[in-house]
């Protein structure tokens, strides 16, 4: 396992290098001028624009531009956002807590709903409630997240008025106070509920099917033959063995949060990294865009690594060579 872990970590380095090359050239291929947002909009003099190109290094060969960018990136210099006129690392530091908060709350919703529905459906399969849960899961799998987000805003914000449809906190409150934290929680519930509900379906079905499968195993039949109470069989044998594999999903949850936040934060105007990423695409904010693209790619690689390692740990039948 240790050798496998070291190999996987070392393999991340060349993969990140290849991703950085792809990200750099995709940014160059994007429509629009790389100078957008960096020059004075009131000055369209060709000589001034050419001077700015030379100053910013856009006339250098492509390989020179890439080397300069990736060297600065490795040293922790991510450049300056052309839209917000501030260092990219400071901009990300402002938005990162919101995305982490959204991700944590959405995971709580995911596991809460998945455990409740999966355990009930697995314990009482083929009942009306089980079929209802299955129908709900298939509906969640079929609905795109942007449709679910728009519907949630229409129902819970505009019609019922239960939750705000944008923002992350009431700006009138003093940061750090109890009211400020309650406001943050109040603003994050609806987008986290949408993001969490979309991931609940697969978890629920997995837990349900695993409970049904484990209830038919030989060790369960043996326990019943010995006269073990049914509640003890379910809690200590069936449920325990069915829940443990869900731990392996923690790695993939990182990928889910990253992918879901891109759409969810934009729909709810939630100021996180997902919204920042799409905004940087629309405004040709190349330093921010490329930094976030590499960050998201790194998180995906780390998430897959964690999932593989956890799977080998919780399931002793898996042997990583």
From TrEMBL:
Record carries keyword Cell membrane: yes
CDD domains the record matches: TM_PBP2
ABC transmembrane type-1 domain segment(s): 96-307
Gene Ontology cellular component terms for the protein in this record: plasma membrane
GO BP terms, alphabetized: transmembrane transport
Chain ranges passing through the membrane: 9-30, 100-121, 133-156, 185-207, 243-268, 288-314
The keyword NADP belongs to this UniProt entry's keyword annotation: no
Membrane-topology annotation of the record: Multi-pass membrane protein
InterPro entries: BPD_transp_1_N (IPR045621), MetI-like (IPR000515), MetI-like_sf (IPR035906)
Subcellular location per the Swiss-Prot or TrEMBL entry: Cell membrane
Keyword entries, A-Z: Cell membrane, Membrane, Transmembrane, Transmembrane helix, Transport
Family the UniProt entry places it in: Belongs to the binding-protein-dependent transport system permease family.
Protein's UniProt name: Peptide ABC transporter permease
């Amino acid at each position: 396992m240790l050798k496998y872990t070291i190999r996987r970590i070392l393999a991340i380095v060349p993969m990140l290098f290849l991703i950085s090359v792809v990200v750099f050239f995709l940014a160059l291929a994007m429509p629009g001028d790389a100078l957008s947002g960096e020059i004075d909009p009131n000055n369209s003099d060709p000589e001034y624009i050419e001077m700015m190109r030379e100053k910013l290094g856009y006339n250098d060969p492509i390989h020179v531009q890439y080397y300069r960018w990736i060297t600065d990136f490795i040293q922790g210099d991510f450049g300056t956002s052309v839209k917000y006129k501030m260092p990219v690392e400071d901009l990300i530091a402002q938005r990162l807590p919101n995305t982490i908060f959204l991700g944590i709350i959405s995971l709580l919703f995911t596991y809460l709903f998945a455990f409740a529905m999966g355990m009930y459906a697995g314990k009482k399969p083929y009942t009306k409630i089980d079929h209802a849960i299955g129908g709900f899961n298939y509906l969640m799998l079929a609905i795109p997240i942007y449709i679910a987000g728009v519907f949630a805003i229409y129902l819970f914000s505009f019609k019922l008025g239960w939750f705000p449809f944008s923002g992350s906190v009431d700006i009138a409150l003093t940061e750090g106070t109890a009211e400020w934290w309650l406001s943050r929680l109040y603003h994050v519930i609806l987008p986290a509920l949408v993001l969490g509900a979309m991931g609940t379906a697969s978890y629920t079905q997995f837990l349900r099917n695993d409970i049904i499968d484990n209830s038919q195993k030989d060790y369960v039949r043996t326990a019943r033959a010995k006269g073990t109470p049914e509640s003890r069989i379910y809690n200590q044998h069936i449920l325990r063995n069915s829940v443990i594999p869900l731990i392996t999903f923690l790695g993939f949850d990182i990928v889910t949060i990253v992918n879901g936040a891109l759409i969810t934060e934009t729909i709810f105007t939630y100021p996180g990294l997902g919204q920042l990423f799409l905004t940087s695409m629309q405004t040709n904010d190349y330093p921010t865009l490329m930094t976030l693209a590499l960050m998201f790619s790194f998180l995906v690689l780390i998430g897959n690594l964690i999932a593989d390692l956890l799977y080998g740990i919780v399931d002793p039948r898996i042997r990583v060579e």
